[in-house]
Every structure is written in structure tokens, then in C-alpha cells.
Amino acid sequence: MRLSWFIIPLLMGSCSLEEANSPYPFPETPFGEVPQPERNQASAKGVELGKKLFFDTRLSKNGSVSCATCHHADKAFSDGIALTEAGVSGKKLLRHAPALFNLAWYEGLFWDGGSKNLESQVFGPLMHPDEMGMDLGELVKKLQADSEYPALFKGVWGTDSITSQRFAHAIAQYERTLISYHSPYDNWKAGEGALSEPELRGYAVYQTFCSRCHTEGLFTDLSHHANGIDSQITTPGFELMYMGHYRITLDSSDIGKFKTPSLRNLGFTAPYMHDGRFVELDEVLDHYFKEHRNNSLADEILKTNAYMEVSQQQKNDLKAFLYALNDTTFVKQQP
């Protein structure tokens, strides 16, 4: 009898730990199963912890900047600013804050492709002196001394010892849950809705002119391209903005190449391009359908079609289709 009373609490404890570490219930998506590294399988408690860290300003040097400062849920986790000055230094950053969704499928992160996975990506803005400016050792001490975090980490990893790897893994787990696939286009593809005539015509324009780099599904080819943005930088300190993927590979053929962003959620993520130079979607379309894209930094894909005639009606139809890729469910369900 005494033995049974001893065993029951142990069983209850093991069930509690198992529940805490239960796998996160990822939804079925049109992109297939959500990719996860073997070393960092998402759990319900891990995602919960990662979300708390994502929105916590204490992860920055002066306690004023969180990941969410530059990645707003209602803007598909972009910020609506060309080059923000919201970091701890108050200086204008050299890149437009990218939107955050469907990142689990991405093979390169940051506009330059400088990070290969979400786990390592966390440390970029965290340690950058102009963004969050945090020292990892100081951050670990701060979280370890907090009244809540040690217990939350223990609920995920079975120990209240906090490490930089564990909080990076937690944030990465949360970011993998940011999945967008409920646009009118997705409903149409699933046979659960219809596109309008302008949207359908725009879909045909997209297939002709845009699909080689913005591959249907994720609407990105997960690669890097030079899109004809000029390289004339006149602001002191910003001269290397146009170098792009070259900063990572040191291959001269990669100068001016940047990550292909998804065409999804463009209605929420203005301004556009890696430097946020275009405020309106019409400006983006004008850039791609006019001769000034045919410069030395434009990919051959663009130069091939540089002078093809596109009517204003076709541009209007394409714009209608692009807005059919907006996922209002995604931006509304986020905190």
C-alpha cells in the first residue's frame, strides 16, 4: 500500500512533464509538413516560451526593444517603416525589416542570406549594436534571475538552467508557428472559394512575368536575385547597402543580389524592397515593367523581358491577384 502511494505521485509527475513537452500541433499546410531540425522539435511549452521571449523588451540592452518592436503582428510581422530607427542606438538600420511568416521552409534568412536557420538567426538582431545590442552573458544572467523564466525553461527542457542556445531554440520554435496559408488564393486552390475575373487575369500575368522568381506556393524561390535596384547610395555609411549576397559569399556575381521575398501579404507589408524605397505596390510594378530595371545589377531573368509590353489593364489585374494573396486570418489571429 505504501509503495502504491509512492508510485502514484511519480506517475503524476511523469505525465506532467510529458504533457509539458508534448509536440506542438502544427496544422496541415499546402506546403507540406512543417520542416523542423531534429535537434529542436517544437513543443507546446517551447512555443509558449518562445512567444514570451519574442515580445519581451528585456532582451535588449536598454530594455526598450523586443523582436516585436520591428515585427508587428498586424503587419504580417513587418513594421511599415522603410529603415527603422527603433533600435537601441537610435540609428537608422541598413535594411528594411522583413515580414515573418512561413520561415520554416526558408533556406536562407536576412535579406543577404547570412543565416541558414532560425536558431542562428536569433543572434543577429539580438547582438547587433544598433538593434537590440545585448551581451549574451548578461542576458542569460538576467533571465536566470527572473521570477518566471527559470520555471518556464524547466517546463521545456527539464532543467531551470538557462543557456543562449535554449532561448534561441525557443524563439525559433515560436517563429516556425507563424504560417500563412488562408488567403483567397489558397481558398480558391482548395476548391473552397472563387477568384474574381480581374484576379484570374492577374494570375495569368503573374505566371508569365513573376513566377520564375516567386514560385507558386510559398511565392518565393528561396533564392537571391539582383532585381535592378540602383547601386547609387549617397547617404554616408550606407555605401555597402547594395552589396547583398556578396557580403556572405564574396563572389562578385552575387553583388546586388537579395533574398526573394514572398508575394504573400503584400497588402500588409509596405514599404517594399530590401531598403523599403517603394511605398506603394504600384511603384514596385512600375519598377519591374519599365526600362530602368535593365541596368548592370539586374538578373538576366529580368533583362530578357525588359522591353515586353505590359498594359495598364494587365498591371491592374496583377495587382488584384497579388492582393488575393493577403491572409487576413493570419494577421488577425496573432496577438
Description of the molecule:
The chain is mainly alpha-helical and 335 residues long. It folds into two domains: 15-176, Cytochrome Bc1 Complex, Chain D, domain 2; 184-333, Cytochrome Bc1 Complex, Chain D, domain 2, CATH 1.10.760. The protein is built from 14 helices and two strands, in the order αααααααααβαβαααα. Strands 1-2 form a two-stranded antiparallel sheet. The longest helix is centred in the N-terminal third of the chain and has 19 residues, at 2-20. It is globular. Mean pLDDT is 88; it is low at 1-16.
Helical segment tally? 14
The CATH class of the largest domain is Mainly Alpha
Q: Report the CATH superfamily of the largest domain.
A: Cytochrome c-like domain
| Distance linking N and C termini | 49 Å
CATH architecture of the largest domain: Orthogonal Bundle
Structural class: mainly alpha
Question: Radius of gyration, rounded?
Answer: 22 Å
- The total of beta strands comes to 2
How is the topology of this model organized?
Layout: H1 2-20, H2 44-54, H3 118-121, H4 123-127, H5 136-144, H6 149-157, H7 164-176, H8 184-189, H9 197-209, E1 224-225, H10 246-249, E2 258-259, H11 281-288, H12 300-304, H13 312-323, H14 328-333
Antiparallel strand pairs: 1-2
